Amino acid sequence: MLTYDQKNLGWLKPSHDGRYIVEVTAGGQLYSALELHRFNNTTGMIYDGIQVLDQADKFIYLYSIEWSPDQSKIYVTGYNSASGYDLFQLEINQFDKTKIRNSLTNIAATQSNIGSPILGADNKIYITNWGSKSEFLHVIHKPNLSGINCDFRYFDFSLGSKTSLGAPLYASGLQFPYRAYIQGEQFICHDTTVRYILTDPCSHPETQWSVFDGAKIIRHNEDTIDVYFRSSGTYRISATYPTECGFKSDTIEVKYKNATSPSLITAFLAMRQMSGILARMVSSGLMILQRSLLVLQMMFVKYNQVYVIGLATYYYTVMEIIFIINFMRELLIFVIIADQVAQCS
Q: Cα dist. 134→129, 130, 138, 164, 170 in Å?
C-alpha cells in the first residue's frame, strides 16, 4: 500500500465476486499509482498486491475505476496534461504484473471531462461528465471487449439534469441481485482438473451445477466442484440456485490456452527426435569417458616419451572439450523439446 498523505486521495473497488481489490491513488505530491490485490472476502485479508502503475509511469492524476461485467478488465479514468482527460483499459485475465501493464490501452483522450465510471444493471458502464454538457453521461456499451471494440461513446446518455465528478459507489454485487459468481481458472490446459467455487456470503438452497461442451464433473461438494477437461476447446460452466423471487445464477466460459492441441504425428516426431538426441548424448558420454581414460593413461608413461605424450595429451584434451560442448548442446535441446511436449502454453 502507498503511504497516505492529505494530497493523495484514492479509490478502492472490489471485483464483483470479491476475489480482488483494485486501488488507485490520485496524484498530488506524487504521481498517481494503481495497485491490484487479492482479497479474502471471508477473513477480510488483503494480500499479494502488485503495483501495476507506479511513479515511473508518471501518470499525473488517475481518479476512478470500474470492473467490466465479466471481471476480465478494469477501466481507469484520470487527467493527463499531455492528452487532457483519459479513459484507460487494463486486462485482468491473469494476475501477472507484466501482462496487465502490457495490456494498457487508451480508450479515450479528450478535452471533454471524463469523471467516474459505474457499471449499470444492463452491463454497460456509465461515466460522469462534470464539465460541458454535464447533463449527459459517457457510455461504454460493450465493456467486456478489448480496445476500441468496447464501443465507448461521448455524451451518449441524457440524464435531464447535471451530474458531478463522482458516481455512486455501490456495495460490490448489489447491482446484480440475481447473479452469483463462479471462481476458478478460465484459461486451462487439456487433460487437467480444475476446482470451481460459487461465492455467496448468504446461506442458500443447494446449488445446481451444469457443465457443457464435453467437460465432466468428477467431484461435487455443495458450492464446490472439480471439473475434468480432457481435450482442447471452449467450455461453459453454470451454477444456479432458487430464491424467493426467482433464481441466482452465473455462467463462465473456460478456454484451452492454445487453439489446438498437438497432433499424434507431432507428438510422435517430437518423441522420436528426443530419442535420437538421447542416443547421441549416451554416445558422447561414452566417448568422453574413453578419452578421459586415455589421457590419464598417457600421463603416466615412460620419461623418454614425454614430448610425444604431451602433444597427444593436448590433442585428446581438446577433443574431450569439444565432446563435452556437444554433449551439453544435445542436453539443452533435449530439455527444450521435453518442455514443449509436456506443457501447453
A: 5, 5, 10, 7, 22
Kind and range of the H or E element at 39?
A: strand 33-39
**Of all helices (H) and strands (E), which one includes residue 320?**
helix 306-342
Is there a contact between 34 and 24 (Cβ–Cβ < 8 Å)? yes
Give the three cell numbers for residue 137. Answer: 453521461
Beta-ladder partners of 51: 35
Beta-carbon count within 10 A of 90 CB: 22
Phi, psi values for residue 324, rounded to 5°: -65, -40
Give the residues across from 179 on adjacent strands: 249
- 313 class by beta-carbon count within 10 Å (0-12 exposed, 13-18 middle, 19+ buried): middle
Q: What is the mean pLDDT of residues 221-226?
A: 91
- Is the separation of the CB atoms in 119 and 69 below 8 Å? yes
Instruction: Give the dihedral sign, CA 199/205/211/215.
Output: positive
Cβ atoms of residues 87 and 79 within 8 Å? no
Provide CB contacts within 8 A for 228, sequence distance 6+.
Answer: 192, 193, 215, 216, 217, 218
CA distance 203 to 43: 17
Task: Indicate if the pLDDT at residue 7 is higher than 60.
Answer: no
pLDDT for res 240? 92
What single-letter DSSP state applies at residue 223? T
Judge whether 226 and 193 are in contact, CB under 8 Å.
yes
Distance CA 265, CA 282 (A): 26
**Closest to 339 measured CA to CA, from 284, 263, 266, 274:** 274
Residue with cell 459507489: 169
Q: Is the pLDDT reported for residue 236 higher than 60? A: yes
Measured between alpha carbons, how far is residue 291 from residues 20, 326, 329 in Å?
A: 61, 15, 19
